[in-house]
Design brief:
Blueprint (H helix, E strand, L loop, with lengths): L2 H14 L5 H8 L11 E7 L2 E8 L1 E3 L4 E2 L6 E2 L5 H14 L24 H5 L8 H7 L9 E2 H9 L16 H15 L3 H13 L5 E2 L14 E4 L2 E4 L4 E2 L6 E3 L1 H10 L7 H9 L17 E5 L2 E10 L2 E8 L4 E7 L6 H13 L21 H7 L1 E5 L4 E8 L2 E7 L2 E4 L1 E4 L2 E3 L6 E5 L2 E5 L6 E6 L6 H5 L3 E5 L4 E8 L2 E5 L6 E5 L4 E3 L4 E6 L5 E8 L2 E8 L9
Parallel strand pairs: 6-10
Antiparallel strand pairs: 1-2, 1-15, 3-4, 5-11, 7-11, 8-9, 12-13, 13-14, 14-15, 16-17, 16-24, 17-18, 18-19, 20-21, 21-22, 22-23, 23-24, 25-26, 25-32, 26-27, 27-28, 28-29, 29-30, 30-31, 31-32
Helix pairs in contact: 2-11, 3-7, 3-8, 6-7
């Protein structure tokens, strides 16, 4: 008997001997959503391809007091991506494309970046293509308020002149890749993306309440509306997309059971589809990453997991599978202030807890503070810079404490734990000061190193050299930089003014990201480069002859 089959048999026996209070324990997990007038979640538990629990908590529509039901339809955001990936893999099985196709074979309107980008790169978020939501936001679009279509995404992507990195060199999540994959599905199949996924995935699996929404104005019966909590009040928060692939799947927790079952007994695509979807991406250096095709490999308390979450507007979703146990949980929520993956893990612990490693202590172990002389603490204050990520950490010595400045108005005191090691709170990353270097070491993941640098303290006259209008042809935007009250301020379309905080020479932190001004051989400011998370190295050019008011 194989190890996987043995694990499945053990899990099934555990279910057969399950205590009768499991539903009550799951209900307790979602208790906070049962207060009157609250949005909430639906949850479904799958074992061996069958639903063993399906529950709903909270309201689907606060205007009309409509409660959620297990059959309520949710926008599941990036949980959509695995279905887009499946559509691509089905077309590869059909011989309509290959994963090693240059994407410009299917998307000729995209620029030639001088490096070959493949369909496989898009699947694994290793293409280097900048993220669509970030680009549109920088251009002045209001996410989930302005209507966004496939054409809008293609417009902004077709104007890009650079990539975040060479294809295959890094893994950086990019929604653009999955929107492009959906367009490729349509062009390679000769049908709309929605029609193809309906006919090849959802109908064969009997997912009758599932489809990709490509028309925001369509009426969808039994859908849950998204909400966010602001100042103790619930506010409507819904998407406004006519673009699908990276997002826009509408489905139910009950329908997702049929998708989960396809990984146990494949109906769509056969075992070849399952194997292809679960194959991890690989970087040029030969290292495998956790991301596969719209799904992520991981672990939870010693058990292997395959997951993906989603977050758009007021919608939050998670689909969590334990492949060796043939077990899954879907949690779909319509309140932004929820963590559906954490909720799904807690549900899984109700069912699989006996097969998991013991839980770590829920309360952190207190670490004794080691007092340091004020003079020594003061020597650690200053600015620390990470050039690779264009990020900074600033520390000040105030009231006898070393503090990290998180904004111009806010600081957080650090707690010394000895040997120039500090924590912000328990648990937290450890901050290690060594000579002129700072290392931030998280409990999990990779440590990040910062070098101590001299802070940039420009005079008002120096700031005046940066004032002006700056243009980016890649997003068709004008950014205006003015001097006001002795500080630089960024003004741009549909955004509140943002104060630029000086970091190192010619480099400032701003609301959209880190701005590094460029100069010509005479020292004249000619433009700036913006580093904004999923958009790296975007160039703006200073316009000449345009007068900028400082009022």
């Amino acid at each position: 008997m194989s190890s996987h089959l043995l694990a499945a048999v053990v899990a099934l026996l555990a279910f057969a001997q399950a205590p009768p209070d499991r539903q009550a324990r799951v209900d307790e997990i979602f208790k906070e959503f049962t207060v009157p007038g609250s949005p909430g979640c639906t949850v479904a538990v799958y074992q061996d391809g069958k639903t063993v629990l399906s529950r709903a908590y909270g309201m689907a529509n606060l205007d009309h007091d409509v409660p959620l039901a297990p059959s309520s339809i949710f926008h599941v955001a990036s949980v959509s991506k695995q279905f887009t990936a499946a559509a691509i893999l089905l077309l590869a099985q059909d011989g309509k494309l290959t994963l090693d196709d240059d994407i410009r074979k299917h998307l000729p309107e995209l620029p030639d970046f001088g490096k070959r980008i493949t369909v496989r790169h898009l699947l694994h978020h290793t293409s280097g293509i900048r993220d669509q939501w970030s680009l549109l936001g920088l251009a002045g679009w209001r996410y989930s308020n302005d209507l966004i279509t496939d054409d809008d995404v293609l417009w902004v992507l077709s104007r890009q002149k650079d990539l975040n990195f060479p294809p295959g060199e890094q893994h950086l999540y990019s929604n653009s890749g999955y929107t492009l994959l959906a367009v490729i599905v349509s062009r390679a199949s000769g049908r709309s993306f929605r029609e193809f996924t309906d006919d090849r995935i959802f109908k064969p699996l009997g997912m009758t309440n599932t489809h990709f929404r490509d028309d925001f104005a369509e009426i969808v019966k039994h859908q849950a509306y998204g909400y966010t909590r602001q100042d103790g009040t619930f506010k409507l928060s819904v998407t406004n997309f006519d673009t699908a692939g990276a997002t826009s799947l509408l489905t139910t927790a009950e329908d997702l059971a049929k998708w989960d079952a396809n990984f146990q007994k494949p109906v769509v695509g056969g075992t070849a589809l399952v194997a292809a979807m679960e194959e991890r991406g690989r970087l040029n250096e030969g290292r495998d990453i956790d991301y596969a095709s719209g799904i992520v490999h991981g672990t939870h308390r010693g058990l292997n997991t395959i997951t993906h979450g989603g977050a758009d507007a007021g919608y939050r979703s998670a689909l969590l599978r334990y492949p060796q146990q043939r077990f899954g949980v879907a949690t779909l929520c319509n309140l932004a202030q929820t963590n559906p993956m954490q909720l799904a893990q807690r549900v899984a612990e109700v069912y699989l807890g006996d097969h998991m490693q013991p839980m770590t202590a829920t309360a952190p172990v207190a670490v004794a503070e080691v007092k340091l002389p004020a003079a020594e603490l003061a020597t650690l204050a200053g600015l620390y810079w990470n050039a690779r990520d264009a990020s900074a950490r600033r520390f000040v010595f105030e009231d006898g404490h070393l503090k990290m400045r998180t904004s111009p108005e806010q600081t957080i005191a650090l707690k010394s734990i000895g040997n120039r090691r500090f924590v912000l709170e328990n648990p937290s990353p450890t901050l290690i000061f060594e000579s002129s270097r700072l290392t931030i070491a998280p409990e999990f993941g990779t440590a990040v190193t910062f070098e101590r640098v001299a802070p940039f303290t420009p005079t008002t006259a120096q700031l005046e050299a940066f004032a002006g209008a700056y243009r980016s042809d890649e997003i068709e935007a004008i950014y205006r930089i003015v001097v006001k009250d002795g500080r630089l301020r960024l003004e741009r379309l549909k955004s509140n003014p943002s104060v630029l905080e000086p970091l190192i020479t010619d480099t400032f932190a701003s609301q959209p990201g880190v701005i590094r001004f460029t100069r010509d051989s005479t020292g004249t400011v000619t433009g700036f480069v913006l580093e904004a998370g999923r958009v790296r190295g975007m160039k703006f050019w200073k316009e000449t002859g345009r007068r900028i008011s400082n009022q």
